[in-house]
Amino acid sequence: MAWTVEQALQCTAIDRVVVSTDSATYAELARSLGAEAPFIRPAALATDEMATEPVLLHAIDELAKDGYEADAIVLLQVTSPFRRPDMIDAAIRQFEREQADSLLTVVETTPLMWRNLASPEALYDFENRPRRQDIPAEMRVFRENGSIFITKCELLRRTGNRLGGKITMYPVTGAEALDIDGLEDFQLAEFFLTMPD
Description:
Distance between the termini: 21 Å
Shape: globular
Strand order of the largest sheet: 1-5-2-6
Number of domains: 1
Helix content: 25-40%
Order of helices and strands: HHHEHEEEEHEH
């Protein structure tokens, strides 16, 4: 949380840094780091099964109670700790320049994909397999990495989804693409921390 709060506070295009948590301890930590924690998230919105969108809606509704209406919300998940100092600002500039309704960070991956272990099915023409360097732009594929999502609040309220309308992608690479979802990801994050700048 400390890294994410610090990154958000350094961002010149964000006017409020708000942490949503169900923990009074984490709320106090967020405040000590310079963020706001003006409400405690209800227990019903803090389960392992809870989607992110209801949490975002709760946050913007709580802020609206005090008269604050944001144009857009920038979601920075603490499980993606390796953001470059200028990355958030650059993503916001792209969001505004492209007049997008939503933005997500992505990492390029190979389009030479398969699915269904029980009955393998190629998602490309494996009989005419291209060399990776010859893959045309329209075949390039990207996966979400969860580092940054930007959503117009109107869209979020109308659709209940953080993505929609005109969507733009902000590509990231290397450590900044890491999303910590398990022990191996955590070990990889520790490895990145030991690498020299």
